[in-house]
Every structure is written in structure tokens, then in C-alpha cells.
Amino acid sequence: MSIKMHELDQKVEEAIEAFTFRFRADKRDRNARSAVNEIDEHQIEQLKHRGIPNKGRAIQDIVNELVDDIFAYGVRTDHPRFFGFIPGPASRLSWLGDIMTSAYNIHAGSWANGPAASCIEQELIHWLCQQAGYGDSSGGLFVSGGSMANMTALIAARDKVLDERTLHLGVAYVSDQSHSSVMKGLRIIGIPSHRIRTVATDTSFRMDSLLLRTAIEQDLAAGLIPFAVIATAGTTNTGSIDPLRQIAAICQEYGIWMHVDGAYGASVMLSLKYRHLLDGIGQADSISWDGHKWLFQTYGCAMVLVKDKMDLIRSFHVRPEYLKDLESDHSHANAMDLGVELTRPARGLRLWLTLQGLGSLGMSEAIEHGFQLAAWAEDELRKKKYWEIVSPAQLAIVNFRYAPADLSEDERHELNQRISKSMIENGYAGVFTTELHGKKVLRICAIHPETTESDVRNTVRILNQYALEFHDAVKR
Fold first, then answer.
1. Which domains does the chain have, with CATH numbers?
2. What is the pLDDT of residue 6?
């Protein structure tokens, strides 16, 4: 077996060199490739029947199949003209950090297993906490994504305010623009749907703080226990930022944990020009933040930050007999004592490498470019007839629809869906739909540092061409 493994290692070395060449070529040709490459059912059926061979195959053949038959399909979230959902424009720096971390395969659950990696992660968390305005008692953890970051923070909130006797009375507050992961996480940690209040948003899609106060007072009068308010810094649909200072004041008045879902928008804290938009975020008890969105990291790099690190330790610290040798003091807190995972990779090293390479100023400029891209898209839309700006450009997101007066709402709905579908089939750009106040709208989220002004303006021009073509067809 050892001889066989040695032979495989040699083949893997050769495959790594060949794959690296192909990957570099793919990156160079990225602009010429489709932003979305759909797979057909015949190809899916072929994949289903690959099976597992009795004897090992040639490594190079397997690598080629991965590249040609698997990685090639789906949405290319790192394409400069992929504007759907929240793109994932991972930088080469993050890619390098991810490869190196995987290559050395460090167990980063405890300080003892990976002291240097743990030190870097903790120091980076400390620096990120400083950007939020947190003090020396703050802390946090690198996790897999915004869903896990939100849930980790809400577990700490639950344990801070509620106990086993009062858990059934706990109430949490979200907005109608909150991310679905928040409600999912609340249910997972024992808060049923009938104890989750959805607060309406204003015309700018921000949580209405007056309605929030009313809901809290009604629940208190009913003998319930409000324990968490989840504000959003950069909603997925529109990039809206809830009134953080107003919400913080309400939470402080009633003794409620304030969590900010900043999975998308928290990155604006690193922008010198726009960080003022997140005024008040430092008053929150916890913040979620995705590195694999607007910090240009490969997937699986997110953070949860808390004002008081002990809140995480109280919720997650355990010490079975088989882990006693890994004990550490709280100044060198084990990552496993701050969150759900025991075994975990050193997710923060790729972000550390990226920030070392770019510097904070370089990261600031890359984030600010997204604001400009959305502004260019909105400017181009305003030059065209019949386009309605439903939510103006903010945090690199703009929502709009083709809405000529001679069409019914149902016809507008169908037409905008058709425009999106045609653009996706075209492959030039990834532009998808969402719904705002009952309207089917097109949405551009543009955060790729390599996306150009011509990319966004040409995307709008193509959307307009489809709109004119389909409008004429509807009227005929």
C-alpha cells in the first residue's frame, strides 16, 4: 500500500502542475467566457452514473474531468459580469492562502494544535473588532459563512438573556428584508416561528424602529421576553442599512441583545470613504461578516464578532476528559471554545494573506469600486425610456424594472422575468430577479474589483435591447 501511495503522490505532483496551467489560462480568459454556463439533463445523467471504480484511474484524467465536466458548469460567481445574488469574486491572494492552508492541513480548533495559526486568527479578529469600534474585551471566530455566524451570535444572545425555564418565552425581532438564514438559525436554536416577529420596513427598505418599539412593548405586556433584535447592514435585496443607532438605543432601553447581520455590508467598515454609513454598528452586541463576499475571499471564510468574548465562551466552552491536555487560558482562547466546531480549518489565514498583500488602503479602494459600478449602472438606466429605479444604487446594489405604462402589472412581471432569463442564456452577464413591494425587479450587485464601467453600461444596454424586443412582441 505504501508503494502504491508513493506512486500516486508522484502522479498528483504532475497533475498539480497541469491543473495550475489550466487554471491560469481560465483566469486570463474569464472575460471572454460566459458568466453563467448551464448544464443539461443528459450531462447530469452522465455524472450520476460515473460511480466509484474498483481500481484507481489515472489522476490526470480525473483532474481533466473535474475541470471539464464539473467545475465548468453553473454560475461563475467570480466572473466580472456576474451581478446576481451576492457575487464571490475571490482574489488570487485568497486563493493562494486557501491552497496553502489546505496543503498544510492545520487543525485550528485549539491553540495547542496550531499555535501560530491560532495567533494570526485571533490577532486578525482583534483588528476587525477594532474596525467595528469594539474594545479590548471583544473577540470572535472565523466560521464557514453568514448562516453559521448569525446562529453562533444568536446562541450567545439566547444564553445571555434566557435560560431553560424561560426559553419558551423568548422573542426575536427581524425585518421583512432580513436574510432567511436568520429565521432558520432562530428555529434551530429553539425559537419557534410564532416567537419571531417580522417588523415592516420603510420606503427605503430599512427596519421601522417605531414599529419595532411597539412590537417589543406588546410582547412585554403579554408576559414574553424580548431577547434579540437582528438588524441588517446591507440587505441582500437592496443593500439597505437599518437605523443602527436607533435600534441600539431601543435594545439598551429594554435590555435586549442587538445583533447586526453584516454578512454583506460589514465590509464597508474597511472603506475610508463610506464607513460612516455604518454609524452605530459598534453599539451592537454581535456582528456577522462574510469575507467571501465583499472582502474577496474564497468560499468558507466568515466571521462572528462579539463585544464581550466571554459571552461566546459561556455558551460554547466544554472540556471532556479527552481534551483536557488542550486547556488554555482565555487570553489564548481555543477556537473550539468560541463556537460550534471542534475540528476546523484555519479559515482566517487566507484573509490575513490578502490584507497583508493589499494593505488596508488597497482593500478600501477595492470595496469603494463597487459603489461606483452600481452608480454607473443606475446612470445608464436613467438614460433609457420606461426603466423604473425601484431601489437606487447603494452598497453596490441597484434594483430596477422595465415598466412601460401600456403594460399591466402581470405583463411587466412576466417581461422582466423574461429579460433576466434571456440575459442568463446569453451568458454575457448574470442578472437575476427579486421581488420588492410586490414588484418583480431586476437586480445588479456589482462588487468585482476587475469589473469596468463598460461592463456595467453594456449590460444595461443589452437588457434594454431585450426589453424593447419583448415589449414589441407583447403588444403585437
1. 106-344 (3.40.640.10)
2. 65
